[in-house]
Design a protein that fits this description.
Helices cover about 50% and strands about 20% of the residues. By secondary structure, the protein is of the alpha+beta class. The strands form two sheets. It has a four-stranded antiparallel β-sheet, covered by helices on one side. Strands 7-6-5-8 form a four-stranded mixed β-sheet, with no helix packed on it. The protein is elongated and about 70 Å long. The chain starts with a helix and ends with a strand.
């Protein structure tokens, strides 16, 4: 199963949950007892699909050295998303609106975010890697920057900025990495191998 299929699979499961929610709201043919089991089954499937997506999107070539990169920014975004969906779920659940049962969809998404965050942490799916001529960063998504596209590399105050010719920037919090010195050595080697020394600007 490749990364594109894993994304499609997760979105199809989410679409199925939304469809079941709408059918439950607008038809008397599904009772609360029945829909509870449907939500449970689809919810678990959505959690598995989301974990699979996170795993597939973090794949690099076998043997590539990865440096764990689990930042406060990553956690903050996840916490905000979890709280937002949980609050929306509570508001919908205690409302008198016809769409109150969409609350279960919000709770499923919030719970999934918690599981996926723990999964990413346990499986080290948030990382930085040097894969041939590419700098690869995996946090909320997998991003790569080729060496020949890099315009400038700046380091200051525990931060390293990689800026490409289109002014797109990667910011790496080296001060938050457990393997700081090893990462710096790997970065220096990668810079030398890709002839980027003239593009490095230190503090």
């Amino acid at each position: 199963m490749n990364s594109l299929f894993s994304i499609l699979f997760k979105n199809l499961v989410l679409l199925a949950i939304i469809t079941v929610s709408l059918i439950f709201i607008f038809t008397p043919n599904i009772g609360y007892k029945e829909v509870r089991y449907i939500f449970l089954g689809l919810g678990l499937l959505y959690v598995v699909a989301s974990c699979l997506e996170a795993y597939k999107l973090s794949q690099v070539n076998k043997g590539t050295k990865k440096f764990i990169y689990f930042t406060d920014g990553f956690i903050t975004k996840r916490v905000i998303k979890i709280i937002s969906f949980a609050c929306c779920g509570v508001v919908l659940l205690y409302s008198d609106s016809i769409i109150k049962y969409m609350a279960f969809l919000c709770f499923i998404i919030a719970f999934t975010e918690i599981v996926v965050t723990i999964w990413r942490h346990q499986k080290h799916l948030c990382f930085i890697a040097f894969e041939n001529d590419a700098l690869v960063i995996s946090t909320n998504k997998l991003s790569a920057m080729r060496a020949h596209d890099i315009l400038k590399i700046e380091t200051r105050h525990g931060l390293t900025y990689f800026i490409n010719t289109k002014n797109k920037a990667f910011t790496v919090r080296t001060d938050m990495m457990d393997e700081k010195e090893e990462f710096r050595r790997a970065l220096n080697n990668w810079i030398q191998e890709n002839h980027l020394s003239e593009k490095v600007f230190n503090e």
